[in-house]
Amino acid sequence: MEFFTTFKICSAGLSAQRAKLDVITSNIANVSTTSTPEGGPYKRKMITFSAEPLKEGFDKSLADAVRIVKVQNVVEGKDGFKKIFDPAHPDADKDGFVTLPNVNIMLEMADLITASRGYEACATAFDAAKNMALKAMDIGK
Description:
Layout: H1 3-29, E1 45-53, E2 67-76, E3 82-85, E4 97-100, H2 105-139
Antiparallel strand pairs: 1-2, 3-4
């Protein structure tokens, strides 16, 4: 396998995990946002990934086996909103209830840890491939 192919696979994983970390960060930052420019409370965002074939660097027998990850899209969560009674809140309805975002901070923190571990794994694989390429060049001296 070419080293540049390995770098391409690792960089796709790094980019995907970075996008996931950005979405999670946005969710955590808006955990108590009750009013958005679109109207209503903040809606939790979720990211979906897809696998695309890597068409370069492999012979025909491995061409369909090796794939890279791509961000497919970012969608809003369909979970229900929480309502609390707070008639003094500026976003309270006529009955005194405030609709809060559908962001669960514990779930977001678990996703954050998972995404950061995925990012670390991709960075470690990239570093290992780089070290192998350097050792291969040293052998040729």
